[in-house]
Design a protein that fits this description.
single chain, about 180 residues, mainly alpha, 8 helices
Amino acid sequence: MKVHQSSSRLPATSGKPTKSKRRDRWPFKAETCSPLTWWRQLPPDAFGEPECLQLLNVIGGIDVLRGGADLAAALRGDATAAIDAAVHLIPVEEITLPVDITMTALVCAVLDDNASAALVMAQVIGLTCLGHEREVELAASWLAYGRRCSAEPDKFGDAEAVLMAAFEETRRKGSGR
């Protein structure tokens, strides 16, 4: 998916996404929530061409008043800047509009098949209280997506084990939230 800079860009998938069992049973749907919240509600296989185009329109319509150079560059399609901006959010204590904007820019980088962005996406999701029971599963789906796009998928194995343990620990500690 190439969602930045040019509205003529279409998703690189050049076809309909394969329908997975997870997509059929996933409790959240793109059509029932704002595109700025998709990062915290939808797994990567929920992003087909219509959703990618909608992200393009949303990101293209945002002007940054605050948030620094990383966020401005992220909104222009700079994957490294999107990763940097998202890393600076950790730990996310509260979901705010700036968090949603930053993470939506990161979704765009991930859907451009950026494995590093997928790793950061999974980390942020897995370590953040999103207010639903599917947080760990959602984080795992972004990890799996990153592994699929990685030039070195074997390296994801170690990171995945460490992150999944951290996600579970975060859930155990935060179960009283």
